[in-house]
Amino acid sequence: MVDTGLTREQVIDALRPVQDPEIGRSLVDLGMIKDVAIEGGRVHVHVELTTPACPLRGRIETDVRNAVTALPGVSEVSVQFSARVRAAGSGMPDRQPLPGVKNTIAVASGKGGVGKSTVAVNLAIALAQDGASVGLLDADVYGPSIPIMMGVSHRPTMRDGKIVPLDAFGVKVMSVGFILDPEKALIWRGPLVSQLISQFLSDVDWGELDYLVIDLPPGTGDAQLTLVQRIPLSGAVIVTTPQDVALADAVKGLAMFREVKTTILGIIENMSYFVCPHCGGRSEIFGFGGGERTATRHDVPLLGQIPLEGSIRQGGDIGFPIVVSDPDSAPAVAFREAARQAAARLAVEAARKPRRPRIMLRPTT
Ligand SMILES: Nc1ncnc2c1ncn2[C@@H]1O[C@H](COP(=O)(O)OP(=O)(O)OP(=O)(O)O)[C@@H](O)[C@H]1O
């Protein structure tokens, strides 16, 4: 083997200018370069991403390759990826994070029926498909639809005094629908809703999760406000259709999350357009571009535009969501991209947080 004289330090120095494109800081400073191995002219770099759902993995790989290839004597560069999700915490210091759960993502809508649960289900599965450990909590006491959409309905069991969530498509699922009599759901008032959901957060054995996606009840009333004040939320995704009445309510949702200092990860515009399966013509049934305009006006990202499609409705009805049933379809790709963008935003939030200083214990003499 040819000795090029190349050292680990030289490789790390070459990697210093390479940034995580989302976070805008050096991979080296962020502790994302886990290992560098050199064998003659061959260099192997192990990068630890901040989420397995990283939307810019390809770009990071290219930048790492280019930086290392530029060093004298390098003939081949291989890049290996792993991921460790970091906790973004919640906006309010008094809301304690859930033990074992790194990030909680609320999926909310100002208006009912805009596809909030559909989005929650597909986002959660998309994150799990990328390799994250994911839970999905259906907190929509007024119409828990997650059991049907995820194709799970039996009552969960108990283990060591905790509720064991059900598993569907690699996601741990818990729903008020597993426990409540659907006939009684409507009489739940704000404080009771919040008490029940708090109990679900603490009494369910979620284990170690990178992301817990929470499908909130629609609206911005008393019940929703009490909930978002009590749950330690790392971020919120707002679902809307492009229709004016939905957008007006989505703006109320943005205001609610801002009031409780929860990061808004972005807006998802659902039912954005319809492509006729017969003639291929495109119709903008609920208007067009409203989600984008609202996102721009309120300075939040637009995470995606999901078309109105029969297969999405059907996937929900039969408990076989579109990211599983037809992963290459346009809506599935849009859901996956939205999930990755949301995960990337959380990684940025986590990186902004000052690291807790290590406490050095004095040796006892
Ligand atoms: N993009 C889409 N294309 C076709 N159908 C959709 C789409 N998004 C949602 N749907 C369908 O619209 C209906 C309402 O969706 P969903 O239950 O997800 O809305 P929601 O906002 O959670 O409602 P709620 O306010 O009752 O909680 C469901 O039947 C669902 O399958």
Automatic annotation (TrEMBL):
One of its GO terms (molecular function) is 4 iron, 4 sulfur cluster binding. Residues 8-79 form the MIP18 family-like domain. It holds the Pfam family FeS_assembly_P. This is Iron-sulfur cluster carrier protein. In the C-terminal section; belongs to the Mrp/NBP35 ATP-binding proteins family. Binds and transfers iron-sulfur (Fe-S) clusters to target apoproteins. Can hydrolyze ATP. One of its GO terms (biological process) is iron-sulfur cluster assembly. The keyword DNA-binding does not apply. PROSITE patterns: MRP. Homodimer. PANTHER family: IRON-SULFUR PROTEIN NUBPL. InterPro entries: FSCA_dom_sf (IPR034904), MIP18-like (IPR002744), Mrp-like_CS (IPR000808), Mrp/NBP35_ATP-bd (IPR019591), NUBPL-like (IPR044304), P-loop_NTPase (IPR027417), YlxH/NBP35 (IPR033756). ATP binds at residues 110-117. Keywords: ATP-binding, Hydrolase, Iron, Iron-sulfur, Metal-binding, Nucleotide-binding. It comes from the Bacteria. It comes from Sphaerobacter thermophilus (strain ATCC 49802 / DSM 20745 / KCCM 41009 / NCIMB 13125 / S 6022).
